[in-house]
């Protein structure tokens, strides 16, 4: 309660003083401030309304939460391995690896239902089976995009070594830049939006989330990213944690209901999405809040892909039940 009181007092002081320097505010807040770290991109998008205490619905924790965004996964992983954030938004396989390595985080919720799409210059591609005999460009060997498409191909009766050819771009940016040399490209947002905006020859042929739901039959699309929290936070700072979760849920709901207004907010915060990309990214990122208990089966199904295809990505095994935060 003392920490919560300090947080609320700081918020009031910021409103009165008109302080625009977040860094100074957080420094003064000290241990009363929750710290949140996220990988730039669609996973971070759901936080943007929670960073705007002046918009309705009011942000319960005001300006007392410190947000930071990392450009690359390696930097994010290194910082979280050292416990440098109370709460984080990360790729789900990274959450599993952090857990195995004793970083002290638990999965609290899945926050996106997937944002992978197959783009094609061939309008005859209507289902995964139509990929037989095709060459597919993927950004990154053993990437999450590759492990997902391999499972979809197998479930559709295609041999991934004989019936299709997978080629690899060094990065998503490279795949978009060299799109003229490809007929089919598997991309995540925001690069889907980039390619559609830059090359009129391409259109979305397959929504990978829809295809995933069809082959798995669990009604849950791809849990590509998740919200994790230090295991002591929901216990030692339960009231603040509850307020943060409520603010975060409100933020996601507001974004899904107000995509045009969200584009203006995205432009203010460096979260790896430009104002020009925002509308497409919002519409195709499937922002959700699905708590650990409700998402556990979908998360395990997804992590199993890495266990089979790239076990090092999750440190060699599925997390046990303690990985999933129990809801009070």
Automatic annotation (TrEMBL):
Q: Which SUPFAM superfamilies match?
A: Periplasmic binding protein-like II
Highest taxon, organism lineage: Bacteria
Q: Which InterPro entries match?
A: UCP027386_ABC_sbc_TM0202 (IPR027024)
Q: What is this protein identified as?
A: NitT/TauT family transport system substrate-binding protein
What organism is recorded for this protein?
Answer: Trichococcus ilyis
């Amino acid at each position: 309660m003392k920490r919560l009181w300090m947080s609320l007092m700081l918020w009031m002081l910021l409103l009165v003083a008109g302080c625009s320097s977040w860094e100074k505010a957080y420094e003064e807040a000290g241990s009363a401030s929750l710290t949140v770290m996220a990988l730039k991109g669609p996973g971070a998008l759901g936080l943007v309304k929670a960073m705007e205490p002046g918009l309705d619905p009011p942000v319960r924790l005001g300006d007392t939460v410190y947000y930071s965004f990392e450009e690359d996964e390696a930097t994010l992983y290194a910082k979280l391995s050292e416990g440098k954030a109370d709460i984080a938004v990360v790729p789900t396989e990274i959450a599993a690896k952090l857990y195995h390595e004793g970083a002290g985080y638990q999965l609290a919720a899945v926050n996106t239902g997937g944002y992978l799409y197959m783009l094609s210059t061939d309008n005859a591609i209507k289902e995964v089976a139509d990929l037989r005999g095709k060459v597919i460009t993927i950004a990154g060997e053993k990437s999450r995009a590759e492990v997902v498409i391999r499972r979809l191909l197998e479930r559709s009766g295609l041999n991934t070594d004989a019936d299709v050819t997978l080629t690899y771009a060094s990065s998503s940016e490279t795949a978009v830049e060299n799109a003229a040399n490809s007929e089919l490209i598997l991309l995540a947002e925001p690069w889907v939006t980039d390619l559609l905006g830059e090359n009129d020859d391409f259109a979305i042929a397959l929504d990978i989330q829809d295809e995933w739901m069809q082959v798995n039959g669990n009604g849950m699309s791809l849990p590509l990213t998740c919200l994790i929290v230090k295991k002591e936070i929901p216990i030692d700072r339960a009231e603040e944690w509850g307020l943060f979760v409520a603010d975060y849920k409100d933020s996601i709901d507001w974004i899904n209901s107000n995509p045009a207004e969200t584009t203006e907010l995205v432009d203010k915060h460096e979260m790896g999405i430009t104002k020009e990309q925002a509308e497409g990214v919002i519409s195709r990122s499937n922002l959700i809040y699905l708590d650990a208990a409700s998402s556990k089966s979908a998360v395990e199904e997804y992590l199993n892909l890495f266990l089979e295809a790239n076990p090092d990505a999750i440190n060699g095994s599925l997390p046990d039940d303690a990985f999933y935060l129990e809801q009070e």
